[in-house]
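User: Please run a holo structure prediction.
Assistant: Happy to. Please share the sequence and the ligand.
User: Here you go; the ligand is magnesium ion.
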Amino acid sequence: MDNVILTTRAITKEFPGVKALDSVDFDLRSGEVHILVGENGAGKSTLSKVILGAYIPEGGEIYLGDEKVSFKSTRDALQRGIAAVYQEFTLIPYLNVAQNIFFNREPRNKYGLIDHKKMERDAKKLLESLNCDYINVKLPTKFLSVAEQQMVEIAKALSFNPRIMVFDEPTATLSEREVESLFRRIKKLKESGIGIIYVSHRMQEFKHIGDRITVLRDGKKIATVNIDEVNDMELVNMMVGRDISQVYHRSENHFTGEVLRTEKLSDKKGRVKEVDITLNKGEIVGIAGLVGAGRTELARLIFGIDPIGGGKLFIKGKEIKDNSPVKIVKEGVGMVCEDRKRMGLALNHSVMWNTVAVSLKSFFPKLLISHKKIVEIVTDYVKQLRVATPDIYRACKNLSGGNQQKVVLAKWLSANTDIMIFDEPTRGIDVGAKMEIYAMMDKLATEGKSILMISSELPEVIGMSDRIYIMNNGRIVGECKRGELSADQIGALMLGVGGDSCAS
Ligand SMILES: Nc1ncnc2c1ncn2[C@@H]1O[C@H](COP(=O)(O)OP(=O)(O)OP(=O)(O)O)[C@@H](O)[C@H]1O
Ligand SMILES: [Mg+2]
């Protein structure tokens, strides 16, 4: 085959109880973007990590060109020009942006001391090549937003001048503008002959930049095809191995009474400005907006993570003063966070423990806790959400990214809260599981639960919401009922242009 730069033959990788990769053949050409797709837990990250030297496979071979290689660590792979943007974050929070990018290989001056000036200059250049010159290279990365951290991860990978780049769901946390910058950069990398492996769940996106696509299912390779020779339905069928018809489904339902209201609610940092919203019993309300519009900040404010700076918050008619998460949870509110690593899960604990973490008390008001009962409940959620795990005792850190997200959902579902705040609930979740989550949201609404949903995926907001608020620069700039505005009109409001029709 012409200009193949990397080949894997019959790669097998097992974890206790799971065959994550089952005799997988794969190849990468120079100058191509090779997409890896498949359901959560299909083995995409595992294959990437084998290629990157992070996992040592039990069987199979890896070739760079014609040369057989065996990497003992990511360092070995890096030395041979293979760099990665991992699905999980790898930045050290208290080091600044430049220090993170050049960690352990800082440029030195003639006295052997770290040349901070040069390091910061170089970091700046890398970020500029990604159109991210707004990121301050002297700031510790813990102060950056998730999207900004992701751009730093990408800059870091680029700084190695690799021949092969692996991107594991790089855009899951990015806004449209950043995605565009990234894609422009990827096109340039391609032109310079770099081979790119790109893991993604977003069909629109990978159709746009991909050349070939490999589908994995349950650790096995299903097929490798040219992207322009396959249609969406064929792809989905290959991924899930079953037919899928309707994505967004909403049942007829009625709203009865208000459960949440804000009056000129503001935070203390000026990210949320005089927000008026309401949420009714049985209603799904979406909040659309670009990254940085203040949506996550609004959610944090309502959930009591950040203090209220001004205005009022009412839950079930009662004003909440001195908000805190403990207080808000007591009022029956749950939240699925944008950043599951930091706030959603205790990664070292089991699926079982995480699922019942919030609900234990409500399930078992008496002292006696029945282990059998817990196992039953958790097993049920694992089945409903199709969490790919060999058993419920597995530590969450050993689950694939999308399956971790499902556990976060299970945790709040089992807590049986009346009001749920979902911040990017389907981030990193595959098509099949997304539909299960949508179906679950619809079911919750018909049962009289209320959902406030933040999502960067506009089709999801439009498809699932009874009502939509559009946020821009900390303010609500528009509101519409289901079906009232088109995606274009909502998009214009999100960008802060147009939209006289229903601005609130
Ligand atoms: N370190 C580990 N220990 C045990 N099991 C693991 C480990 N890493 C992955 N697995 C298991 O291997 C399988 C494949 O996981 P992998 O992370 O490769 O999936 P993925 O295709 O990347 O999914 P996602 O789309 O959710 O990111 C899953 O069943 C997962 O639970
Ligand atoms: Mg993965």
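The chain has 18 helices and 20 strands.
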